[in-house]
């Protein structure tokens, strides 16, 4: 019986194996998990995928020092815990081989078939970034790829979620800034997607891990406080569970009753929303009743409301009106016999399975065990995904798309349920108006809307929709379209986007004219010569920066207020200055040098210098390294023409170069490192680093040991210790180049008590 299997799985968590578990043990674990739920015993392809992945990743290590194969294995175990099909698990084992190893997509298709290679390709594409763009743009483009992949096959995103979950579990090996960046992305995008797919098992864990990295003090404080009263709480929950059980038996309802503490992120969210301390939040736990049929759900609810007093307005029926992610349950908050409120959730076993595993719960196997997927019908339920794909087609602007999706996936938003005249349920964000409702039906309905009736009565368009309202939209063909004021009234991201879209397309010509005027007016006010910067080469840079396809779109965006005129003009000025600087550097300065130093022979090609520096356009000039920033091979460098002492070489991030007066900048000259013919360089270069650490006995000994092991000669050392016990150690030493320096810094970072390391920039 399906229910029996579900009952067994109720308390199984997504497995998180201990660190440094051997790959073989993990593989055995994976096979056991698959055999627990899969009807066929044929695991030859999974075995093959494991061997291929092991071979492909054999020389790779993770940041923790573990063999890399551990990561794909753990991803596959998470997928197996979600009871995914064999193809998905194979793709989970192989998801990094195309990106990180020599194996190609064609090899995969040959070995594992087109389905597995399609899934691996989908996951790979989600992780390939274009580093020429800024972070927001990368994130936006990735999102686009993600939703397109989801549209083709939802399993791609389920593998990606499992991949992100395992990376977050091992996030302690990342640098702090990376921890924060990844946690923020997880909280804004991946956790809400897991939520929308209904996979609460993944969503809950991602939320908690993100909170742990973003706000560690809050997280550990919560953990501690929740743990403090653990025994008293468990005793209270157990007494309720026992009481409910006996009443269910009396009523003749077959039920499984259990209690659980809410996860940390949901407690934190409650504390933020309601502005309460932990002591003021009563419903830290929920009691869950699981029964066989929907009829039993309502029967159990009757028994419960007879036993305890329900709190008015705190009853939610998600069985009659499921959430957009297919979640169904009855929620009711009650007052216990000791006066303490607590929540009870009532659902069938099948509903529970959907609540925990969401869309992943619907990967059914045909009895033949071929692993064929029967989930197409389930994808139809994901109306939100279709909506996002519509947006994707509607908007050219990646950042706008990112904001829309983030707004739509907002974790903190509550919902209101209302009805169409024909009785269909619509779910909207809390605080929505009839305008939001109109646009949720269709953009054409919203654009032609002239009024609305709620429960048969005419209302204002800014009326706040209440749960259970029946709404009828009045449209007119004579309507001139939405008003800009509507943007201040609507609540849903979808409505805002569709209104903006209307203004963009309907009024594009006007916006282009307005945008052009606004930019010219701005240049006039700032005393900028517009004709000087209004050139195709600078326009292209603006279009690339803000992800527009043509210049008219940029002007239209400025016209309707999406882009600020200052952003456009400043970017163009920046590009012009870069170009001028290049021209000055190459011609004026070199000519100047030729005049002042008759001995210097100009060479069209870059010449070689004894110092290992290639200085653009000058041969055999006296070159010296500046002491203020101590450049080493691998650093980006620039030359500065000194008076009578040749050229001094600085790092491009040197403070003295960055703060150079405008009139001195003409003396800067391009410089680059000479690559030796044999690819090796015996030269050593002096450099300086600052180490910030908590002072302790043996700290200097540990740092010195790192230098001794690498046979690096320390030429000077300066140590200051503050009253707070923070030590600043400035060290000067000789080194071959950046690679060696980075390895050294990475090693020092691992020393206990080291907080940060900086290079001296002047």
Automatic annotation (TrEMBL):
Residue intervals of the TGS domain: 414-475
Residue span(s) of domain ACT: 688-762
Catalytic reactions of this protein: GTP + ATP = guanosine 3'-diphosphate 5'-triphosphate + AMP
GO function terms (MF aspect): GTP diphosphokinase activity
Highest taxon listed in the record's lineage: Bacteria
Domain named HD: residues: 68-168
GO BP annotation list: guanosine tetraphosphate metabolic process
E.C. no: 2.7.6.5
Gene3D superfamilies registered for this protein in UniProt: 3.10.20.30, 3.30.70.260, Beta Polymerase, domain 2 (3.30.460.10), Hypothetical protein af1432 (1.10.3210.10)
Annotated SMART domains: HDc (SM00471), RelA_SpoT (SM00954)
GO CC, alphabetical: plasma membrane
Top-level EC class as recorded in UniProt: transferase
PROSITE patterns in UniProt: ACT, HD, TGS
Pathway, per record: Purine metabolism; ppGpp biosynthesis; ppGpp from GTP: step 1/2
Xref: Pfam families: ACT_4, HD_4, RelA_AH_RIS, RelA_SpoT, TGS
Family of this protein: Belongs to the relA/spoT family.
PANTHER family given in the database record: GTP PYROPHOSPHOKINASE, GUANOSINE-3',5'-BIS DIPHOSPHATE 3'-PYROPHOSPHOHYDROLASE
Protein function: In eubacteria ppGpp (guanosine 3'-diphosphate 5'-diphosphate) is a mediator of the stringent response that coordinates a variety of cellular activities in response to changes in nutritional abundance.
Protein name stated in the entry: GTP diphosphokinase
Species assigned in the record: Candidatus Enterocloster excrementigallinarum
């Amino acid at each position: 019986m399906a229910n029996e299997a579900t009952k067994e799985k109720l308390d199984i968590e997504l497995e998180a194996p201990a660190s440094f578990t051997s790959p073989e043990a993990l593989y055995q674990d994976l096979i056991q998990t698959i055999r627990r739920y899969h009807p066929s015993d044929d695991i030859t392809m999974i075995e093959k995928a494991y061997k291929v992945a092991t071979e492909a990743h054999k020389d790779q290590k993770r940041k923790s020092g573990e063999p890399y194969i551990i990561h794909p294995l753990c991803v596959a175990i998470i997928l197996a815990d979600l009871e995914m099909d064999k193809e998905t698990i194979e793709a989970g084992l192989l998801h990094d081989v195309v990106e990180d190893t020599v194996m190609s997509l064609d090899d995969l298709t040959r070995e594992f078939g087109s389905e597995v290679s399609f899934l691996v390709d989908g996951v790979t594409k989600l992780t390939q970034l274009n580093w020429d763009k800024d972070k927001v743009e990368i994130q936006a483009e990735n999102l686009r790829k993600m939703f397109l992949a989801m549209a083709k096959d939802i399993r791609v995103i389920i593998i990606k979620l499992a991949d992100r979950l395992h990376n977050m579990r091992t996030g302690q090996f990342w640098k702090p800034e990376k921890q924060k960046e990844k946690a923020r992305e997880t909280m804004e995008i991946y956790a809400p997607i897991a939520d929308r797919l209904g996979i609460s098992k993944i969503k809950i864990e991602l939320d908690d891990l993100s909170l742990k990295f973003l706000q560690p003090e809050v997280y550990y404080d919560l953990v501690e406080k929740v743990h403090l009263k653990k025994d008293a709480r468990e005793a209270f929950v157990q007494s309720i569970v026992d009481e409910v059980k006996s009443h269910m038996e009396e009523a003749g309802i077959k039920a499984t009753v259990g209690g659980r503490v809410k996860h940390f992120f949901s407690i934190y969210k409650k504390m933020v929303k309601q502005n309460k301390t932990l002591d003021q939040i009563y419903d830290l736990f929920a009691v869950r009743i699981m029964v066989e049929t929907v009829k039993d759900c309502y029967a159990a609810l009757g028994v419960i409301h007879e036993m305890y007093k329900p709190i008015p307005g705190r009853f939610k029926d998600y069985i009659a009106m499921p959430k957009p992610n297919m979640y169904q349950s009855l929620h009711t908050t009650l007052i216990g016999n000791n006066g303490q409120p607590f929540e009870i959730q009532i659902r069938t076993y099948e509903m529970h399975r959907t609540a925990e595993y969401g869309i992943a719960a619907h990967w059914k196997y045909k009895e033949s065990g071929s692993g064929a997927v029967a989930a197409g019908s389930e994808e139809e339920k994901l109306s939100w995904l279709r909506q996002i794909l519509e947006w994707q087609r509607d908007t050219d602007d990646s950042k706008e798309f990112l904001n829309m999706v983030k707004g739509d996936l907002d974790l903190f938003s509550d919902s209101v349920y209302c009805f169409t005249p024909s009785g269909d349920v619509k779910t909207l964000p809390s605080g929505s108006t009839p305008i939001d409702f109109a646009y949720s039906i269709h953009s054409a309905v919203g654009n032609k809307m002239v009024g609305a009736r709620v429960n048969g009565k005419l209302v204002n368009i800014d009326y706040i929709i209440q749960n259970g309202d029946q709404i009828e939209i009045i449209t007119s063909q004579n309507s001139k379209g939405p008003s800009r004021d509507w943007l201040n009234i609507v609540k849903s991201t979808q409505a805002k986007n569709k209104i903006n879209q209307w203004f963009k397309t309907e009024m594009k010509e006007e916006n282009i004219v307005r945008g052009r005027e606004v930019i010219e007016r701005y240049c006039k006010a700032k005393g900028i010569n517009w004709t000087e910067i209004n050139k195709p080469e600078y326009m292209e840079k603006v279009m690339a920066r803000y992800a527009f396809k043509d210049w008219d779109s940029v002007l239209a965006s400025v016209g309707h207020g999406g882009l600020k005129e200052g952003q456009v003009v400043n970017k163009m000025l920046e590009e012009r200055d870069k170009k001028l600087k290049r021209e000055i550097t190459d011609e004026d300065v070199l000519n100047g040098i030729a005049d002042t130093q008759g001995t210097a022979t100009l060479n069209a090609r870059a010449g070689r210098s004894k110092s290992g520096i290639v200085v653009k356009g000058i041969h055999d000039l006296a070159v010296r390294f500046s002491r203020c920033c101590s450049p080493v091979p691998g650093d980006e460098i620039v030359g500065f023409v000194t008076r009578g002492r040749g050229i001094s070489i600085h790092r491009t991030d040197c403070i003295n170069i960055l703060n150079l007066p405008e009139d001195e900048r003409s003396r800067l000259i391009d410089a680059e490192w000479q690559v030796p013919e044999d690819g090796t360089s015996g030269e050593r270069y002096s450099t300086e680093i600052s180490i910030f650490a908590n002072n302790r006995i043996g700290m200097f000994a540990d740092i010195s040991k790192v230098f001794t092991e690498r046979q690096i000669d320390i030429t000077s050392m300066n140590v200051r210790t503050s009253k707070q016990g923070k030590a600043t150690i400035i060290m000067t030493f000789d080194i071959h180049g950046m690679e060696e320096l980075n390895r050294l810094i990475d090693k020092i970072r691992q020393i206990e008590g080291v907080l940060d390391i900086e290079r001296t920039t002047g």
